[in-house]
Amino acid sequence: MKRIFVSTVFLAVFAAHVTLAAEEHVEPPKSGSPKFGPPIVRTHIPTLVETVRFSGDIHLCGEKIPFTDPEVRERLEKEMMLAVWNRPQVMLWLKRAHRWFPHIESVLKQEKLPLDLKYLPIVESALLAHGRSYKGAVGYWQFIKSTGKRYGLRIDSKVDERRNMFFATRAACRYLKDLYSRFGSYLLAMSAYNMGEYGLSKAMARQDTQDFFSLYLPLETQRYILKMVAVKLIMSNPEKYGFHLEPQDLYPVFTFSEIKLSPKSDVPLSMVAKACDVPFKTIKDYNPQLRGYDLEKGATTLLVPQGTDKGFYKKFPVLYKALVKKRSSSSTYHVVKAGESLSAIAGKYDISLSGLLRTNKLSKKHIIHPGDTLRVQ
């Protein structure tokens, strides 16, 4: 009985295999013959071995990658296999790239920089505004605070422009230009971007070489350039690696309108959202550099969903006028006298110190002086 059962199962599997093979090789219907449904869409996901069969020359930012060198090939194969088989992550790269690459490429062209540099923020942040490294690097291009400020980004308790794609991309271009001018190679410039220009200069001097592939660098930096190569290979030909996305699968290109305003006092971002007729979250998403719930006084340019600027300019003046009127009728102020402290003033008006600081946009380290005016209600 066991033999009969096994034979029966084998015959069933064999028959299913023959049927599947026949379906895969079905002839297309001739003209006039009935149609039996939509055509079969076949996709091929390459094996790990196939993903690392390189051919032809490979370049990054115009510089040749010597992948025929056994040591370089091993490093590149590692990055390719790790990337290709993290399929959800690559799918997100491709989807987000459709949203942001047009803007990044536009800036790179204006700055006369290699378009391959568009892959750098994928390696750095996976194109996420709020990415943060353990070293404190933030944003799409992962600037640390000191470097971001050096290249013109505002970074404080109210605004962090590292999270703004447009500001950060301009700053990254300026930084990469300086690095290329210093090292004469984009591979070295990107290495310096990752590990710092001073560390790279020191390593090059001590090792007496200017060739990236001959340098012994921190392991993260050694992988950095090969990660960039892997990302470029996959994203420039995703179908080859089994990523078959249709236009409707991609995230839309980021489109926006700009609004300019110059309030004389802080205003709630919720008011800006109301004037644009969008949720508060939308204003935060379009302007990830803004921190907190309020927009500070002074000239500001914000991004809003395309077309909502028209409604904003009609509604905001009315809303702002009502806010000013409400504040003037309900607010109480205190003029600081000699010897007074913030905690003493808070206690006098039965409010918390944190509340007093928050209301007046002050930090704990702020020093008050006689004659200063504080809002206490």
What's the short story on this structure?
With 377 residues, the chain is mainly alpha-helical. Helix content is 50%, strand content 6%. Helix 4 packs across helix 7.
Largest beta sheet: strand ordering? 1-2
Poorly predicted regions: 1-36
Oligomeric description of these chains: single chain
SSE order in H/E notation?
A: HHEEHHHHHHHHEEHHEEHEHHE
- Helix content range: 40-55%
Q: Using the CA coordinates, give the radius of gyration.
A: 29 Å
User: What's the shape?
Assistant: elongated
Largest sheet: 2 strands, antiparallel
Query: What count of helical segments does DSSP give?
Result: 15
Number of strands: 8
**How much of the residues is beta strand, in percent?**
5-15%
Structural class: mainly alpha
Distance between the termini: 91 Å
Overall mean confidence score, pLDDT: 88
Describe it for me?
The chain has about 375 residues and is mainly alpha-helical. It has 15 helices and eight strands. The strands form four sheets. Strands 1-2 form a two-stranded antiparallel sheet. A two-stranded antiparallel sheet has the order 3-6. The chain has a two-stranded antiparallel sheet with strand order 4-5. The radius of gyration is 29 Å and the shape is elongated.
List the helices and strands and how they pair.
Layout: H1 2-24, H2 48-51, E1 59-60, E2 63-64, H3 70-84, H4 87-110, H5 120-125, H6 145-150, H7 165-183, H8 186-195, H9 197-207, H10 219-236, E3 257-261, E4 267-268, H11 269-276, H12 280-286, E5 294-295, E6 300-304, H13 309-330, E7 333-335, H14 342-348, H15 353-359, E8 373-375
Antiparallel strand pairs: 1-2, 3-6, 4-5, 7-8
